[in-house]
Each structure stands twice: as C-alpha cells, then as structure tokens.
User: Which sequence fits this backbone?
C-alpha cells in the first residue's frame, strides 16, 4: 500500500500539471517568450529551459528573459540572434509538451543553428518535495522509499530529455545541440547538501547518458559551480547571479570548442 502511495505521489508531481513553488504545487501558466537581436548576425540560437535559461532574478527577468542570462552571452560570443524560450517553472515534461503541442515553439526551434537545453532543475525540486514528505512521515522504510522515488524521477527525466533532443533534431536536423547538466545551489555547509548531491549526480548521469546516445556536447555547470555557490548563486535562492550566468555561458563555449575539436577529421 505504501509503495503505491509513493508511486502515486511521484507521478502526480511529474505529470499533474503543476510546478513546485515553496511548499505546494501550483498550476502552471505559460508566459510569453521574447527574442532579443543580440547582434546583427543571421545565425540563430534558440534556448530551451526554465528559470535559469530565463535569467530569473536578474534585470528585466520578471516579464521577459533577462539579457544577462547565459543564452544572450553565448549569442554575443558567437554573433548569433537569440530567442530565449526559457519559462520559469518548466519541468522536462512541460518542455517536452511545449515541443510536442505548441506550433509557435516548433517554428522557432526549426530555424535554429544552435539549440541550448538547460532543463531539470524543477524536476529535481519536485523530487526534493517528495523526499521531504517521506522524511516527515512515520514510515519505517524511509530509505527504501526515497530510493524508489529517486529512481522514478530519474528514469522519467532521462526519458523526457531523450525525447526533447529527438524532437529538436527532427525540427532542426542541421542545428548543433548543447546540453547543460545541473549545478547544485547548495553549499557544503547546508544540511541538505549530502542528500542533494546524490540526486544531482544521478540526474547528471542521465544528461551524460542522453549526450552519449546522440553524440552531443555537455556544458558542465555542476563542476563549474562546485565550491563557488556563494558567488554564483543568489543568496537564499537557487538562481544564478550575473556572474553565475557568465560562468554558464563560458562552460557552454568550452563544451562546444572541445566538441568541435573532437569532431574534426
């Protein structure tokens, strides 16, 4: 009975149409997307993701993506026009739904030369909500239930991410795709650090698995932010500072450069 309850809770979190905000699930409402012409070039960068891609917490990020977010920094570095489709609160499931059911998103992606995919943070925070629920319960098998929840979320995330990549490839077969793994916003002194580290490692293995499947570069945000959370993440928050966004752009450049060298004849 308890296992069925855990599975039901997890599945509701994954596909129930809500996003975790604070201590509850709230209905998702898609906001408008915005495009800045970062430079006058004709090449197009399309950024897919959630609040990190959107630049939440930075200048102009309340109603539209912030020009300080990493996609615009990458766009300036490569001389590309940028369309930021990051929507705060999106999980991998919701991004997949947008690519599957929203023609306007498909049209934008189909015109891309470079597509960045930075998604999964909200999947992880939904999982953390489930973990905390289990930890506060009277169950005698909390450890096993947490492992079960982690596995369900991880499997769903990898499946969604793989489908997202395939959809992008179908829409823009000649575009370069750049995946981002997940950074941890928790400093080593945080009481949740050990639990969260295990989860981030699991999800980043999922990213690596999808990257290997499709032969894609991975921007290693996890390693870049490790030991620098107080500088790269806003205080008492999970979103990057302006410096953190610059770091995300830099690791993207590094990943693309290494991939280009490795792919050269």
Assistant:
């Amino acid at each position: 009975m308890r296992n069925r309850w855990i599975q039901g809770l997890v599945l509701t979190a994954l596909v129930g149409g809500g996003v975790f905000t604070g201590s509850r699930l709230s209905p998702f409402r898609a906001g408008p997307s915005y495009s800045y012409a970062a430079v006058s070039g004709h090449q197009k960068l399309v950024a897919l993701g959630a609040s990190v891609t959107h630049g939440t917490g930075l200048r102009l990020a309340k109603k539209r993506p912030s020009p300080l977010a990493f996609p615009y920094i990458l766009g300036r570095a490569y001389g590309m026009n940028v369309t930021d489709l990051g929507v705060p609160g999106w999980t991998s499931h919701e991004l997949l739904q947008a690519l599957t059911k929203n023609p306007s998103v498909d049209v934008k992606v189909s015109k891309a030369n470079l597509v960045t995919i930075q998604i999964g943070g909200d999947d992880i925070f939904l999982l953390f909500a489930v973990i905390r629920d289990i930890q506060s319960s009277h169950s005698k098998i909390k450890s096993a239930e947490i492992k079960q929840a982690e596995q369900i979320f991880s499997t769903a995330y990898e499946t969604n991410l793989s489908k997202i990549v395939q959809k992008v490839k179908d829409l823009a077969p000649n575009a370069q795709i750049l995946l981002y793994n997940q950074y941890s916003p928790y400093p080593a002194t945080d009481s949740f650090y050990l639990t969260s580290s295990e989860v981030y490692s699991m999800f980043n293995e999922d990213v690596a698995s999808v990257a290997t499947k499709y032969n894609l570069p991975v921007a290693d945000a996890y390693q870049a932010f490790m030991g620098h959370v107080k500088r790269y993440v806003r205080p008492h928050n999970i979103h990057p500072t302006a410096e953190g966004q610059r770091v995300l752009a830099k690791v993207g450049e590094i990943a693309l450069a290494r991939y280009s060298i490795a792919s050269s004849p």
